[in-house]
């Protein structure tokens, strides 16, 4: 066998085949192929002849919500982002709140564990920094989150205080009569008032909604969002989810369980009139004659949610209340004497606690008397961890709730720093 090459005169000159040279060339080709194939390693000259660097070890990271202030000038935000990037902080979302000569920037960050976030922000020019731990539920983008809050508000008037807290973080929300400010409805203009850490808005049900967040001033953007939700609530008017469930009683018969509001005021008063003085005293811890004065407040969706047990004839025989009390949540029950000891109170309590879990509440508490064995038994029947406090015959039972899979508690994490 021979190889054929072209000579310089264009002719074809046979060349004798050299098996040793051919074997050497094949060996070189095989070595090159193996080198390229092994782990797709780069050629030796790309690393200076040194072995490739190992992959960096995985570092545990933590989600943080952070707010800081920077000067509203070109490059200020870039300097802050650079300082974060130098510490391998991943910016997942960013919202800006213009404030004249400054801008408040709100971040959702993934931060390597052990990072001094406050120092990093200060190095990048951030001021008045505040941060708290976040969780996976904060990963929803801003517009999607606002649409979800608006949908909750549209479904149920009782949701407004909750969605305001979801929107604004840990805050205290109160509904007060306008006369408390000394000048009637005109005390708060239609567009509302923003005063640093306090927002005041006209309550669609009359009076004034006050939102306080002492640890962090509100921005004009947050004020506008809160006002938009309140305006939506006002446009939709009174509303409540419909539907009712039939509850079969152990001793026979049944009642229906449904949501109640101020439209049920007269039926609730009629139930009070059928209750004994002892039942009213155990429930309201005060003069029996004043019991019906509390009903308008208790039935208002602005202060919480109410469940009613009702007979086929339309009589309300039991009420259960879930009341928003600042950062805490109270549960309360009253069952008409003729319907007690039939499991109605326990059923209402169980449903109220389920609502509290869905609303993201961490605890619920009941205020009763040590002699009210029915309420104590109902709380114990929840199967939850309970704390008891007794003072001068008044018993406060607090149940710690397990969070729902899709709910974020109002206390979303610890507040880290504010400088």
Automatic annotation (TrEMBL):
It comes from the Bacteria. Residues 255-403 form the N-acetyltransferase domain. The lineage of its organism: Bacteria, Bacillati, Actinomycetota, Actinomycetes, Kitasatosporales. The keyword Acyltransferase applies. Keywords: Acyltransferase, Transferase. This is GNAT family N-acetyltransferase. Residues 1-20 are annotated as: Disordered. Residues 65-136 form the ACT domain.
């Amino acid at each position: 066998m021979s190889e054929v090459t072209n000579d310089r005169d264009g002719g074809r000159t046979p060349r004798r085949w050299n098996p040793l040279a051919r074997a050497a060339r094949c060996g070189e080709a095989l070595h090159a192929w193996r080198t390229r194939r092994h782990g797709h390693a780069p050629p030796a000259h790309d690393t200076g002849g040194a072995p490739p660097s190992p992959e960096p070890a995985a570092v545990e990271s933590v989600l943080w919500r952070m707010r800081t202030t920077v000067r509203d000038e070109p490059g200020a935000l870039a300097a802050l982002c650079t300082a974060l990037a130098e510490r391998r902080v991943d910016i997942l979302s960013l919202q800006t709140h213009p404030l004249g000569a400054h801008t408040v920037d709100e971040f959702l960050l993934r931060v390597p564990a052990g990072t001094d976030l406050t120092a990093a922000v200060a190095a990048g020019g951030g001021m008045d920094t505040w941060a708290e731990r976040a969780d996976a539920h904060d990963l929803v983008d801003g517009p999607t989150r606002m649409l979800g809050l608006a949908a909750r508000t549209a479904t149920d008037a009782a949701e407004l205080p909750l969605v305001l807290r979801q929107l604004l973080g840990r805050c205290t929300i109160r509904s007060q009569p306008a006369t408390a400010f000394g000048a009637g409805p005109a005390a708060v203009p239609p567009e509302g008032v923003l005063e640093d850490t306090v927002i005041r808005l006209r309550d669609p049900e009359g009076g004034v909604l006050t939102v306080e967040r002492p640890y962090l001033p509100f921005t004009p953007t947050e004020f506008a969002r809160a006002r938009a939700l309140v305006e939506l609530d006002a446009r939709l008017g009174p509303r409540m989810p419909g539907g009712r469930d039939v509850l079969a009683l152990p001793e026979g018969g049944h009642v229906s369980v449904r949501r109640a509001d101020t439209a049920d005021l007269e039926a609730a008063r009629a139930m009070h009139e059928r209750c004994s003085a002892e039942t009213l005293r155990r429930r309201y811890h005060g003069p029996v004659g004043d019991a019906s004065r509390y009903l308008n407040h208790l039935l208002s969706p602005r202060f919480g949610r109410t469940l009613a047990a009702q007979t086929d004839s339309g009589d309300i025989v039991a009420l259960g209340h879930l009341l928003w009390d600042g950062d805490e949540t109270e549960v309360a029950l009253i069952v008409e004497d003729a319907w007690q000891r039939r499991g109605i109170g326990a059923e209402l309590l169980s449903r109220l606690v389920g609502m509290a879990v869905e609303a993201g509440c961490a605890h619920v508490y009941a205020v009763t008397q040590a002699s009210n064995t029915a309420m104590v038994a109902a709380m114990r029947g929840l199967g939850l961890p309970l704390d008891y406090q007794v003072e001068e015959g008044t018993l406060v039972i607090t149940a710690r709730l397990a969070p729902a899979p899709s709910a974020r508690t109002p206390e979303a994490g610890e507040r880290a720093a504010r400088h």
